[in-house]
## 1
Amino acid sequence: MTDQTANGTVYIRSTLDSDGRAACLLTWGTITKLLTPEAALTTARELTAAAAAAESDVATIESFRATLKADMRTIGLMVLDIRKRRPMPKGRPALRIASVAGVRTGKPLVHIALGSMKGELDPDEARTMALHWTQTAVAAQIDVRLRYALGEWDKLTPTDIERLFAIVQRSDRGADRE
C-alpha cells in the first residue's frame, strides 16, 4: 500500500520477520522498518485520532474566535489545555504523529515523521493512510496463516509458496495505482 506525502511516498506491505511471524515492512525514503501488526494497528489508530483532533481543534479555534471574540493568545492556551485533557494513546505508534490546527490557514493537518523523514497530511489523507496500515496488518496475519497452510500441503515447495506471494504482492502494487 502506498501513501503520498510532500516528502516522498510511504510504502507498507505484509511480510514475515526472521522467525516466520507476521510483520509489516515500512519504507519511506531511505528508511526501512519492520513492524509488528500490532504496531501498524496502533499507528493506524493514532492517524485516525490525529485527523479527528486536528478537525476538532480548528472548529474550536473558529468557535472561540467567532462566539467568544477571544484573542489568539487566549485561544492558544485553551486549545493546549483541551489537548492535555485528551486521552493518551495506548501502545507505541511506528511514526511520530501530531495533529495541527493551521492558525493562519484555518486547515486541520496531521504531521507525521520517522527519523529524518517528515510529511503533512490532510485529515482524509491521514484516514486513508490509517486504512492502508490496518489492511496491511490484517493481511500480514492472514498471510502467515496461509503460508503455514500451503506449507502443510505437499503439492507446493517453499519456493513455490514464495513465488505465489511475490505474484500477489506485485498485483497488489498495481491495484494501488488504480
## 2
Amino acid sequence: MTKSEILTIICSLLALTISLISLVRTRKHQDRILQLEEINARLSQKQLEELESADKQKLKANVDVYRQDGSLVISNNGESEASNVSLSFASSEQNLLARGEFDKFPLRVLQPFKSFKLLGFYNTDQSPEQVQVVVRWTNLDGTKGENVVDIQC
C-alpha cells in the first residue's frame, strides 16, 4: 500500500467516525425534542381545560339570601346573571314577608352583584326562631342553582 492509499483510508475512517458521532448526537437530540413536544402538548391541554373551567364559572350565578333591617335581601354574588329567581319557605307559617311581596316572584333577571329587597321580614312573638329559605335560579348556561339558607328571626 502506498502512502496515498493509507492516507485515503485514514481520511475515510475519520469521516466515518465523525458521521457516527454526529448521528448518535442527532438521535439523542431528536429524542429530547420529542419529549419536550409531548410535555408541551400536555401543558397546552391542561391550559385549555383551565380556560374552559374558568369560562364555565363565568356562566354561574351565586344567589344568597340574608336578613337586613327587617327585610329579606336576595343578592347575586356571582359573575353571571341569574334568571327565574324564585323563593320558597320550608312551610307557609315561616313566610314573614309583607303582603304582596311574595307575588314579585319569580324574578325575571337578577344581575351580577345586585340585590333585591323584600319588605316585612320581622320578628314577632309568634314567629319561629329560625326560618329556612330556599332560593332557586337558572344560570346562563341553563343549569339550575339552589341555595338553602337558615335565617335567624
## 3
Amino acid sequence: MRTNWKFAVTVAATVLTGVAGAGVAQASSAGSAAPSACRPANHIAKITAGPASAGHRHYRVTLTAPRGYESCKLAGSPTDVRFSNRGSEIGVTAGHYGSQATVVTFGPGQPVHFDIQVPNTGRTTAATEASFTLRAPDGEIPGTSVAEGEFTVATGTLIGPVQRGA
C-alpha cells in the first residue's frame, strides 16, 4: 500500500507540474502577440470637415492606433453605419461608393481614413457621432467602432472605402 501511495503522489506531482508549466507557456506565447489595432477598443476615430466637392460636403473619419497594437488589414467601406446627435440616433441610412476590394494596412504609425459624402440638398441633420463596423479582406471585423466630431448627414449620404493616411 505504501508503494502505491508514493507512486500516486509522484504521478500527481508530475501531472500538476506539467499542467502548471503548460499554463505558463500558453500565457507567455499568447502574450507575445500584440492585440489587433482593428478591434474597436484598440483604435481612436475622429470626424473632421473635409474639402467640399460639387454638390457634396465631405467629412473625413480618421482612425489611429496607439503603440502596442499589431497592424492589420482593412478593405472597402465600413458597414452598418449609424449616425447620432448627442446620443439620439438619426434615421439616415448610408450607402457606399468606390472600390471595395482595395486592401490597406492599419496600425501604429499607419493611420487610415474614410469619407462621409453628404449631398448638399439643403435638408441636412446635425450629427456628433458615427458608429460602424470595419471590414477586413475576408469579412467584417467583430464589434462596433465609434467616431466623434461635428458633421451633418442627409438622405443620400455615402461612405467611401478605407484609404491610407490621415
